[in-house]
From TrEMBL:
GO molecular function annotation: DNA-binding transcription factor activity; sequence-specific DNA binding
Protein name: Transcriptional regulator, AraC family
Keywords, ordered alphabetically: DNA-binding, Transcription, Transcription regulation
Domain HTH araC/xylS-type: 677-780
Tree of life domain: Bacteria
InterPro entries, per database record: Homeodomain-like_sf (IPR009057), HTH_AraC (IPR018060), Tscrpt_reg_AraC-type_HTH (IPR020449)
Pfam families per the UniProt record, alphabetical: HTH_18
């Protein structure tokens, strides 16, 4: 009874001491850290709020000026078109019409396609070039004939040649050409030019002849929407997110920010979450018209919008401002503010830590034995070790009272046991005093970015069970808990609790494993190795949060002697599907074989990986035997060890094998085979020609350079220049090694013979593809020979 009372007094004294220490720490923490940080935060917020308003107004004013410039450019383009049409009345060709209109027959015979060139040579189009005006048609209403850049054609012939489709029936039928005094735009007109259909509009301008004669000339300019958008986009501000061409009522054409590829624009316009803010051709803009210059905020789009329509014409432009652009300067300013705050916060922490240092000592009664100078250079384990060595006797070192028993001492001893594999008898006695239970298991948590948070959750779950004594320590790539317990049912409850907690919290990166049960503490290293081994089997169970060495048959797998089984019938079935180029069947049989060996054969992880490598080698042999080795080299086989889970490996395998078989199928087309052989032959015959290029080869094969480049990369698996470089390097290797008569050639002579312009380029290219210089390559291979 007396001894229990003494223990109670000692424990109460220890609690009161800790309580006073915590109160002191709280006051100092509030004084030296919390208050300065709060003041710093308030000042930063005030400055940031003020600068936010200023920077947003400044950026909006800049974008308003850019928007006005875009409007002026559109106005200038349309005025220039009208001016160019009016200038027709002063060209030699129109003057000829005036004098020849008395004799229509002579006019029809005398007017030729070259007359359109007279116009192009005499009329200066400052802002309108061939990228903007796609076609010109001149129609003489008196005799009903027309002329274009392709010669004298009727309107019906012109429609058929260019495949023109127009929503306005009067334009499609040509009725509008008989009308006089016109100055109008007709939208939604499409034509085919250079094999590509484009959308745009017709601008019709009437040029009157002399008043003494009947008849007028109607000039039609066809302008592409895309070309006009591209031209106007050059003058848009940096913050313009979207630019639309309109007819004053609805959208005609769209162009997104940083656009270079219209297909990519279409994808961006239809990305998830963008349906409410993106406008498409045909959408009405009535609600967006404001009548004001510059950008105006529109709540329906939650963005700033600028709209302009040219007076007297059905053409305009709509600009939408990127919201983040208005805040770009503020974000840059905010980064500096945050960086400055962190710097000041660090200084505050350093100063306050100096003032509150002694209140944070976890082992104050031990640390007093160490001088201040030595303590600063020691970590936690070294600190405890240094303290224990400073005790006067063996008895003082380990036979300490309950008052001085501390988890950090146990942690230090377990750390030594894990790394050195041994403890003295008195050290084991000390740990057993702390443990109170004979049986123990090792729980391991895989290290990750969120390990600290996961470790806190594990500690919280273990704290619910006072019947379990848990000591944690940090390993190289994991956290370790040594769990001492009495009843085995407690382990089952802990496993269920951890599984449920980590699943509900959606901790996807959390991976845990538990060893089997051990009685002797000195076998801790063995228990740790079991837990780490179990951790590696998470590869096959990615959905599991916690694996057991004994409960999940990991131990049985590790002791199993069976090997990966590949039945002959399965291999024949795989070979049949590979030769038939059936990717789905290949993937199905492959996955069934993989899962069969893991689930039914009870293979260890290492033997399973070895079997997968063997299976992949058989797969490679199948492709080689079927004459598809080149395609196989381009795709390559997978390494299962490089994937985080078996599911991920099989999914990637399915994608890769499908690509491989599809490439093989495309290469077996007879047309491609003949064409590819012709390309190879041409390259081989011209390897020594330094002027061998993609454009020249494309010309020989009668393709455009762009199409030929894409076709070559798809069929040969690399760019044309890379293929030529590799073939030239192979040719150089033959000169260096295989040709005795030319072995005495200099490096420069070999470079010129292989198509390189000089020896410097040859040396650099040779080393890039072989890893050594030509001289080193020759020396190494000759020495081996």
């Amino acid at each position: 009874m007396k001894k229990e009372w003494e223990n109670f007094v000692v424990n109460e004294g220890w609690r009161m001491k800790n309580r006073r220490k915590n109160q002191t720490k709280s006051k100092m923490f509030a004084s030296y850290i919390v208050i300065p940080v709060l003041i710093l935060t308030v000042i930063s917020c005030l400055f940031s709020s003020a600068y936010y308003e200023v920077s947003q107004r400044r950026n909006l004013a800049f974008e308003d000026s850019a928007s006005e410039n875009v409007n002026e450019q559109l106005k200038g383009v349309m005025d220039n078109l009208l001016k160019s049409a009016v200038q027709y009345s002063m060209t030699p060709w129109v003057r000829r019409l005036k004098y020849m209109q008395k004799i229509p027959d002579m006019m029809q015979k005398s007017i030729t396609a070259s007359d359109i060139l007279d116009y192009a040579s005499t009329v200066s189009l400052a802002e309108i070039n061939e990228n903007l005006v796609e076609s010109i048609y001149i129609y003489y209403s008196l005799e009903g004939f027309g002329i274009s850049s392709i010669g004298r054609v009727t309107w019906d012939e012109y429609i058929d040649i260019y495949g023109i489709i127009c929503e306005e029936k009067s334009v499609q039928t040509g009725e509008v050409l008989s009308e006089n005094n016109q100055q109008a735009i007709y939208h939604h007109v499409s034509m085919i030019k250079n094999g590509k259909r484009m959308d745009g509009f017709f601008l019709i301008q009437t040029i009157p002849m002399e008043n003494t004669y009947n008849g007028e000339v109607n000039i039609l300019f066809y302008v592409s929407y895309d070309a006009l958008c591209d031209y106007i986009w050059k003058f848009a501000g940096d913050g313009t997110e979207q630019l639309y061409l309109t007819d004053g009522q609805e959208i005609l054409c769209n162009l997104a920010n940083r656009a270079g590829d219209m297909e990519q624009i279409g994808k961006e316009l239809r990305t998830e979450g963008a349906e409410e803010t993106q406008l498409l051709p045909g959408d009405s803009i009535k609600e967006l018209k404001s009548g004001e210059k510059g950008f105006v905020y529109r709540k329906s789009l939650d963005k700033y919008v600028s709209e302009y329509t040219k007076t007297g014409m059905d053409i305009g432009v709509l600009q939408i401002l990127e919201p983040d652009f208005l805040r770009s300067d503020f974000f840059s300013f905010l980064k500096w503010i945050v960086a400055g705050d962190f710097l000041l916060f660090g200084l505050i922490v350093i100063v306050s830590s100096r003032l509150t240092k002694r209140s944070y000592q976890p082992l104050e009664h031990i640390m007093n034995l160490i001088d201040e100078k030595n303590r600063e250079n020691l970590d936690e384990y070294q600190l405890i070790e240094h303290t224990l060595k400073a005790f006067n006797s063996q008895k003082e070192r380990l036979d300490i009272s309950v008052y001085e028993q501390n988890p950090l001492v146990e942690q230090y001893l377990l750390h030594n046991l894990l790394n050195q594999g041994r403890l003295r008898q008195d050290e084991v006695k000390y740990i057993n005093t702390m443990r109170r239970y004979a049986g123990f298991r090792c729980l391991v948590l895989k290290d990750s970015l969120e390990t600290g948070q996961y470790a806190g959750e594990i500690d919280a779950c273990l704290a619910v069970y006072p019947q379990i004594h848990a000591a944690s320590l940090k390993g190289e790539n994991c956290y370790i808990w040594v769990l001492s317990y009495g009843e085995e049912s407690l382990v089952e409850e802990i496993v269920d609790t951890l599984e449920q907690t980590f699943t509900e919290m959606d901790y996807r990166e959390a991976v845990m494993a538990m060893s089997g049960r051990y009685e002797e503490l000195l076998r801790m290293q063995e228990a740790f190795r079991e837990a780490v081994c179990t951790l590696s089997y998470h590869y096959f169970y990615p959905e599991r949060k916690l694996l057991l060495y004994d409960g999940d048959f990991i131990g049985e797998r590790e002791q199993s002697k069976v090997t990966f089984e590949i039945a002959d019938g399965v291999m024949e079935e795989l070979r049949k599907y590979v030769e038939a180029l059936q990717p789905r069947a290949v993937v199905t049989v492959y996955c069934q074989l993989v899962w069969y060996n893991f689930r039914e054969r009870m293979l260890s992880r290492e033997k399973w990986f070895a079997g997968i490598h063997e299976l992949n080698e058989h797969m490679a042999d199948m492709f080689r035997d079927s004459g598809r080795e080149e395609a196989l080299e381009r795709i390559g086989l997978l390494e299962p060890e490089n994937f985080g889970s078996l599911d991920g490996y099989l999914q990637t395998f399915e994608v890769k094998i499908t690509q491989l078989i599809e490439r093989c199928a495309s290469r077996e087309n007879p047309i491609y085979t003949v064409r590819n052989q012709m390309i190879r032959q041409y390259v081989e015959e011209h390897l020594a020609d330094a002027n061998l290029s993609l454009s020249e080869t494309a010309r020989v094969t009668r393709y455009t350079s762009t199409y030929f480049g894409k076709y070559f990369k798809e069929q040969f698996g690399c760019a044309f220049q890379q293929y030529v470089a590799v073939r030239r390097i192979e040719c150089a290797k033959k000169y260096l090694l295989e040709d005795p008569e030319r072995r005495n050639m200099s490096i420069q002579e070999i470079a010129l013979a292989c198509g390189f312009t000089n020896d410097v380029t040859f040396r650099r290219t040779f080393k890039r593809y072989t890893g050594v210089t030509p001289s080193q390559f020759e020396k190494e291979n000759l020495s081996e020979t």
